[in-house]
Amino acid sequence: MDDHTLASTLASAARDLLARIRSEHDSGPELGREGDRRAHHLLVEELARQRPDDAVLSEEGDPVAPDARSGRLWIIDPLDGTREYCDRTRDDWAVHVALTDGGELTAGAVALSSGETHSTAAPTPLPGARAERLRVAVSRSHRPPLVDELAEVLDVELVPMGSAGVKAVAVCTGHVDAYVHDGGQYQWDSAAPVAVARACGAHTSHLDGSPVEYRSADPRSENLLVCRPEVAPVLLGALAR
């Protein structure tokens, strides 16, 4: 299968495994650790079987060799939104699987807990713009002060959500107009969501408008903007203030 289909298939398989684990275990931190561990092993083992020559960077794995960035590198988050996963009243967690080649995103998939998987295999174009107040997805558990400052200079509704993948997909489906994040993020948090959002036609950048890239050996990726393209200038201008 091609890389797009593989990303979607693996993300979906890990999501389904996590759902089974969740149904069989009590809530709490141990559930998150078990889910992270088993989803990581599923993804790493399948990538070793399907793409034995490719490198893998996982939130739950070891750092990759420096030269891995120059070739094909899978960037995975076996469970994005661990807090939400451990809380049975929440369903805003996801699995991220992305592929970079020479630091450039080439494929990606976000498998939502709902059973839906959004991927570069069959991207759905952004729906039409809403003639309403801008809705901006923000982190539920790591809400940065910047988003409240944004709401002071721009008339927006802040919508708290869990996983970065859930927030990016919310832009793709038209549930929100933008996703703004500042601080405390890593490449495995953003790679698959950015790949899927770009494939749908959304704008993706850092908060200063610079492109989001995956060439750096440092896995940190501190801030992110995913939004409808027509609102990017407005949001970037407000964020610059």
UniProtKB/TrEMBL annotation:
Record's catalysed reaction(s): a myo-inositol phosphate + H2O = myo-inositol + phosphate
Q: What is this protein called?
A: inositol-phosphate phosphatase
What organism does this protein naturally occur in? Lentzea pudingi
Instruction: Tell me which domain of life the UniProt entry assigns to the organism this sequence originates from.
Output: Bacteria
UniProt-listed PANTHER family: 3'(2'),5'-BISPHOSPHATE NUCLEOTIDASE 1
Q: What is its EC number?
A: 3.1.3.25
Q: Which CDD domains match?
A: CysQ (cd01638)
From which residue to which does the signal peptide run?
Answer: none
